[in-house]
Amino acid sequence: MSEFIHLTSKNHSLIIKSGRTPEVLHWGAKIASIDEDLLLSTERPISQARLDVDVPLSLCPELGSGHFNAPGIEGHRDGFDWAPVFNTVRVEAQDQQATFVLEDTVSKLELTVEIKLDYESDVVQKRITVTNKGGSKYYLNKLSSTLPLPNHANELMTFHGRWCHEFQTQRQRFEHGGFMQENRRGRTSHENFPGMFAGTQGFSEQNGLVWGFHLGWSGNHQMRADVRSDGRRFVQAGELLLAGESILEPEATYQTPWLYGCYSNSGLNGIAQRFQQFVRDNIIQFPTDKPRPVHLNTWEGIYFDHKPEYIMQMATEAGAMGVERFIIDDGWFIGRDGERTALGDWYLDEVKYPNGLEPVIEHVNQQGMEFGLWVEPEMVSQDSNLYRNNPDWVLGLQGYHQPSGRWQYVLDLQNEACFDYLFSRLDALLTTYNIGYLKWDMNRELVQPGHQGKAAVHGQTQALYRLVDQLNQAHPKVEIESCSSGGGRIDFEILKRTHRFWASDCNDALERQAIQKGMSYFFPPEVMGAHIGPAECHSTNRRHSINMRGVTALMGHMGVELDPVKESQQEKQAFSHYIALHKQFRHILHSGRSFRMDPADKNQNIYGVQNDDEMLITVCQLAMPEYALPSPLRISCVEDSALYQVKLVEMPQTSFQLMKQRPQWLDKTLTLSGDNLKEIGLTLPILDPESALIVHLKKM
Ligand code: DGJ
Fold first, then answer.
1. What average pLDDT does range 453-477 have in this prediction?
2. Where along the sequence do coiled-coil regions lie (predicted)?
3. Which of the four pLDDT bands, split at 50, 70 and 90, describes residue 1?
4. Which of 441, 442, 539, 561 best tests ligand 1's pocket when mutated (most atoms within 8 Å of CB)?
5. Is the CB of 486 within 6 Å of ligand 1?
């Protein structure tokens, strides 16, 4: 007996056929109602030379019923019960959500599949829980969430990266076989952001049908997209469980992380807008209702060279530039004179700070800024008191040499004594000092993640969540940044308990254009830490004008990452200028709908944000323009009959080497109608490579 469950959101429908096992029949544009004949019209033929029955591509596909691609569940009971086949025993559906309970009375497993459709954003959420109903242990190897794709989704866009090079994208045809990524680094990782897109051939920023996916999990994961030989295709994602990591005792359960998905008929823009709205409505909770403060972070300014008087001078300069939050990075705690020592000893270094931290914090506050502090709680240096006193607190495996990473080791957060120590030190810091912000760093991968000898990335990840949750409860006004050598821990699940990401250790504005673009498909700009660095970038040694650096940082959650004391008066004035611009427009940037355009010149990045009345568009010339003349900026997201005031906000001041005469409108305010802007467009000046401009539009 089959029945349809029809979940609807503002724009989309998700229709699930609930037979023996639930199967998604449609996920995409909204369907007004289900026709009586839909069951008949969607019945599949049974091919020659295949199984004699139809095999549904269910929400948890089973090997045991003839799904020969990746099964949704894998495991065994001492070699038995390794190919479970489920029957739906209960279905609950209301409004935008449905729950299916499935049972296998032979293998004695129960599955609960939860699926929701968020009304406002159209984002789908799915997770599965398995319960061991048998009398012996069930060795669970895998439980993943599967969502189908239509056959016209025949191109994939996936993510790759590394330190200082996060959120890079690559494309591939998706017609036979598939794509798989596996992350065993023990954190979300720079290398394999758990997200991917599938769409119609050539889908772009503005065009095409696209289905987007993100697994909200900060540990290991597996994510794949497969095309079956019958043409049906699907995306599957879940935690990658190491050997023995999930052994379920009788009545014990394992729950997958949430898999998030969304559909768009307007290219990647529709995906980014939906994910960003979902994050704003459901994931981020800023503790106070105030604009996102502009940061100054000390790392690239002074590294480990902490002198309180000098830091106060930096704070004075920062305050004068309009900075609103001043963060002391690594190097403040006892014995931390370089990257090889002291992690774990979370006590102020009184040699460096003989009068304590209070005078520095007071000074920061007097300049009108909030104070923030860097920590890296999950780590320990071998050269630390914590390690000397508790060498057994390290997450590792006895009998093996474990390579260090950045000369440090990971602490076992499932060790209760270790957990309590970390909580009490962080709690003491937040209680003793007037700290409004913690930059929570995590600078190495988990190589031998063993707790009491057993694989423990799952437990470590959950313990991390618990530690952050407990701190949030104890200090509800403190904000936390998730940093992991830059963007190594960026995902929806960590964002539920943090407030900002350090997107990358790379402050090179050109690199940042790509990193921030990739990240913006999932995350809104107000959580994307983006800082102006020194003219010569520390991670690439490339030089950029302040125009390029300023415009690039301004579009995220802005900050400055340098030593303002050492900067020239001219540079400091420029920092103040971009900070002021950011403040002037952050009401749009941090709440509006973002969009990108498909540029005629492939060497341009065109990014905009709009709210009801205003729009800000940045055009960044990444490399030499393709043509001698720029293509007009044709702005598609305007109202045809509305009138707009169009004004240039920002352009490179120093050089326009490629142009001997500039368009006159650059010095004027234009009035243009929506259809003119959309169909004819605005002619831009010729931009030099690695420079950017900003245009502002206001509806009249
Ligand atoms: C890595 C971070 O990404 C940097 O911003 C900085 O905080 C350093 N760690 C400090 O050790």
1. 98
2. none
3. very low
4. 441
5. yes
